[in-house]
From TrEMBL:
Protein name: Ferrochelatase
Annotated PANTHER family: FERROCHELATASE, FERROCHELATASE, MITOCHONDRIAL
Assigned EC number: 4.98.1.1
HAMAP family found in the cross-reference section: Ferrochelatase
Binding site for Fe(2+): 213, 294
Entries under Pfam families matching the protein: Ferrochelatase
UniProt keyword terms in alphabetical order: Cytoplasm, Heme biosynthesis, Iron, Lyase, Metal-binding, Porphyrin biosynthesis
Gene: hemH
Annotated source species: Tahibacter amnicola
Location(s) in or outside the cell: Cytoplasm
Amino acid sequence: MPRFTYSGRPEAELSRAGKAAVVLINLGTPDAPTPAAVRRYLAQFLSDPRVIEAPRWLWLPVLYGAILPLRSGRSARAYTSIWTEHGSPLLAGSQRLAAALDRELKACCTGPVEVHLAMTYGQPSLPATLAQLDRDGVRRILALPLYPQYSATSTGAALDALAHALGSLRWPPELRTITDYHDNPDHIEALARTIETHWASHGRADRLVLSFHGIPLRYAKAGDPYRLHCQATARRLAERLGLPDGDYVMTYQSRVGREEWLKPYTDVTLAELAAAGVRAVQVVCPGFAVDCLETLEEIAVENRQHFLHAGGQRYEYIPALNDQPVQVESLLKLVLQHTRGWPEFAARTAVDAEALHGAA
Ligand SMILES: C=CC1=C(C)c2cc3[nH]c(cc4nc(cc5[nH]c(cc1n2)c(C)c5CCC(=O)O)C(CCC(=O)O)=C4C)c(C)c3C=C
Ligand SMILES: [Fe+2]
Ligand SMILES: [Fe+2]
């Protein structure tokens, strides 16, 4: 096997218009809700030094000796409870989002443009996706990790995997990356609309809980901007919704292991709210572009129990933006903002250009 792949035809490519692609990147998910598949997935995910910052000689024996044997079965049961006929919700939802964005982008760009989905861990992998784009003659790529807030553990890891995959291409394409969109006004607007739609059909609760995935506190102290991005998203969203400080709380979920993570913790806060007499909460997870194990099981099921057992009476989970038109539209605008000057992304009509970029 040659180290560098290239199966295109340079002469043909040099003489014809280029092709361009948007690659949406999400975390990745097991291939099946079985202990073996979950173990394979967790082994890849949790051996990434971006995710677990500890000396390898110390961490790998713990991972293989304790974490994988203990966690794979438990985690597989949780995955079983949310698995759909289309597979893992994270994969199926990300694929639907990519397909919807592909349709919208093709409708408004002079193209040839395509949207693809790849995962940092598991399938569809970044190396396989980039090799396919290379074979298809794609010469420009915009990479969009589906994490509104930058963290080295999520976005950083996605960009590492992308860089690694580019490393095996003989003629890598021109590349742009979006590192975060935590305060993008169209994104904030999309979040606000999905909450307002929920309010229109369910009414409001006593508190709106904005729950973000956590990271170890140590990483934030070392300079990871994630907490600042989450705080900025929460503040902008609350401002847009006209929510006074006392009407919402911001929390961090999904902690793993014994070290301190970003606080306040979602599960602890929900129990405290119930104990303090708060009867009704609505929980939304603005850091998750697509619903997954951490929202559908941990938030919609597990934390509901915490809240109700502690005396709460009404608990509603507001779903992620997924492939709702508000998200497709806001990501379309984000893509067009980051592909200015790339001819494939030029708007088809003046009307498109004005709708997407605003009047010049
Ligand atoms: C142990 C360290 C972990 C860090 C740091 C971390 C950061 C982080 N994760 C996401 C998004 C997702 N995480 C998901 C699942 C998940 N996360 C961890 C651990 C860390 N995450 C584990 C072990 C798991 C697997 C599930 C489990 O066993 O509990 C998912 C869902 C995946 C799915 O298949 O549905 C997402 C999405 C972000 C955004 C982030 C940092 C900001
Ligand atoms: Fe995670
Ligand atoms: Fe979890």
